[in-house]
């Protein structure tokens, strides 16, 4: 992996206080082993929003998968499908929505992470396309009102080296991370709520 790509994946915004606290918080979580119970058959399977999953978690949306692997999000979709885990597709992907939904295996559940675009019609098209492609739920990003300053990440140069094929999900209305993230501002969430009323898919807000 190129250093610029690693900087993007491993860094946080500004002084990375939240990033460090996330790691510290996980370090404070202890798994308490259960004793004197039958462990010959272990089943982690559950349902998430009514959809079956082999584990009590899902693979969340991450941008620009091809920074880490030439197959990008397609590799993540296949991996999630092979293990029966739900995959949330990112709006800021390096593959098109057609490619990502086309890579899923039979019966695989996919969600879609959505930035609310300033152009409502663009978002309507995105929602309609996701519904037609079988995405079971929409997750509207709610925690990016300003554009974060990523001091350690050389994201602009690294993202420019990613080869994007097919039709990008937002039809090139969001040409880079900063523009797309800015359009996820809080004042757009009400518009997102209105737009989601036009779809049969479940709609959720996420941080």
TrEMBL record:
Short name of any one Pfam family annotated for the protein: FMN_dh
Entry-linked Gene3D superfamilies: Aldolase class I
Cofactor: FMN
Domain of life: Eukaryota
FMN hydroxy acid dehydrogenase domain mapped to chain residues: 1-207
Listed PANTHER family: L-LACTATE DEHYDROGENASE (CYTOCHROME), S -2-HYDROXY-ACID OXIDASE-RELATED
Protein name (Swiss-Prot/TrEMBL): FMN hydroxy acid dehydrogenase domain-containing protein
Organism the protein comes from: Powellomyces hirtus
């Amino acid at each position: 992996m190129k250093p610029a790509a690693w900087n993007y994946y491993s860094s946080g915004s500004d002084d990375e206080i939240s990033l460090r606290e996330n790691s510290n918080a996980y370090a404070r979580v202890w798994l308490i082993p259960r004793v004197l119970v039958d462990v010959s058959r272990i089943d982690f399977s559950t349902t998430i929003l009514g959809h079956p999953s082999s584990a009590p978690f899902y693979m969340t949306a991450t941008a620009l998968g091809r920074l880490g692997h030439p197959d990008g999000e397609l590799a993540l979709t296949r991996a999630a499908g092979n293990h029966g885990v739900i995959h949330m597709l990112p709006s800021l992907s390096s593959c098109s929505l057609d490619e990502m939904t086309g890579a899923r295996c039979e019966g695989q559940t996919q969600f879609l992470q959505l930035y609310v675009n300033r152009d409502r019609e663009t978002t309507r098209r995105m929602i309609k396309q996701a519904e037609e492609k079988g995405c079971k739920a929409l997750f509207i990003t709610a925690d990016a009102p300003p554009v974060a300053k990523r001091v350690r990440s050389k994201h602009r140069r690294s993202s420019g080296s990613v080869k994007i094929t097919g039709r990008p999900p937002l039809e090139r209305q969001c040409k880079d991370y900063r523009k797309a993230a800015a359009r996820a501002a809080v004042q757009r969430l009400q518009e997102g709520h209105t737009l989601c009323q036009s779809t049969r898919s479940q709609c959720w807000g996420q941080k």
